[in-house]
């Protein structure tokens, strides 16, 4: 198979002017040389990440439909450049009062590529399933106040293979990765607005997830210090591209805004790697029932929270 180029655009602090944020992202994509086959953008990149303890219903006014300004602007540049684009956005659901932290995959023609859930049903967008809520050391995340959880882990069919999408906190759940891989994903695109003490873990964890599931990973994060109202949050960046053996192919600088990392990859490397590491042949799903039990819990007194 022809080699492909995967690119992660590590956008910097966003302000409340969505149009300006989109214009900046379009310029970054347009300036990529050589042309990538896939571009991945950070979590809700066209807006400041407001889920920082503000608890203000006015932010629901920022939500948009799947064909709203963010996806529409990215569809236009996808057609112009001729590339796939993973587009995260704040989605307004079809029913009143439903809001989601979502992402769509656009094809090189700018058209939406539908996702397929494990039960065979189709969806227009991936909706974040693990919704964060925490408070520690002056850091507050209140996503649960704004977002409903998604409806599962769809995969998306492209001309170079099956791919999956995860959003930020989702990446902490090994079950999410394996569900995507068992549906045939050869690459997983992970879009983040991640801050805090986990920066040192970010790249090593993406390498581990790639190796454990034997697939490519493109993980992109915001970077720089973003201010919304009186709250400042520093996003650490460190976007990366990882191969199916866990090899680090590209990494962005810590905290540096509006930079791109890219790597040339061969999708056939996944099949070759899976012939060396037989994790799918040697699975023992009959032993894993506790993982899917809704009543399973950590022993009393064990910690159970982590930031995204």
Entry keywords:
308 residues; alpha+beta; Nitrilase/N-carbamoyl-D-aminoacid amidohydrolase; 8-stranded mixed sheet; 7-stranded mixed sheet; 5 helices; 19 strands; 19% helix; globular
Q: Sum up the overall morphology in one term.
A: globular
In sequence order, what are the helices and strands, one letter per element?
EHEHEEEEEEEEEEHEHEEEEEEH
Number of strands: 19
The N- to C-terminal Cα distance equals 35 Å
Explain what the structure shows.
There is one protein chain. The two termini are 35 Å apart. An eight-stranded mixed beta sheet has the order 7-6-11-12-13-14-17-18, with helices on one face. Strands 1, 2, 3, 4, 5, 8 and 19 form a seven-stranded mixed beta sheet that branches. It has a single domain (4-292), classed as Carbon-nitrogen hydrolase (Nitrilase/N-carbamoyl-D-aminoacid amidohydrolase). The protein is globular and about 50 Å long. The chain is an alpha+beta fold and 308 residues long. Helices cover 19% and strands 30% of the residues. The protein has helices spanning 18-30, 69-81, 174-182, 199-213, 268-274; strands at residues 4-10, 38-40, 84-92, 99-106, 112-113, 115-116, 122-123, 126-127, 134-136, 139-141, 155-158, 161-167, 185-192, 216-221, 223-228, 231-236, 240-242, 248-251, 259-265. Strand 2 (38-40), helix 2 and strand 3 form a beta-alpha-beta unit.
In short:
The chain is an alpha+beta fold.
Element layout with pairings:
Layout (H helix, E strand, L loop, with lengths): L3 E7 L7 H13 L7 E3 L28 H13 L2 E9 L6 E8 L5 E2 L1 E2 L5 E2 L2 E2 L6 E3 L2 E3 L13 E4 L2 E7 L6 H9 L2 E8 L6 H15 L2 E6 L1 E6 L2 E6 L3 E3 L5 E4 L7 E7 L2 H7 L34
Parallel strand pairs: 1-2, 2-3, 12-13, 13-14
Antiparallel strand pairs: 1-19, 3-4, 4-5, 4-8, 6-7, 6-11, 9-10, 11-12, 14-17, 15-16, 17-18
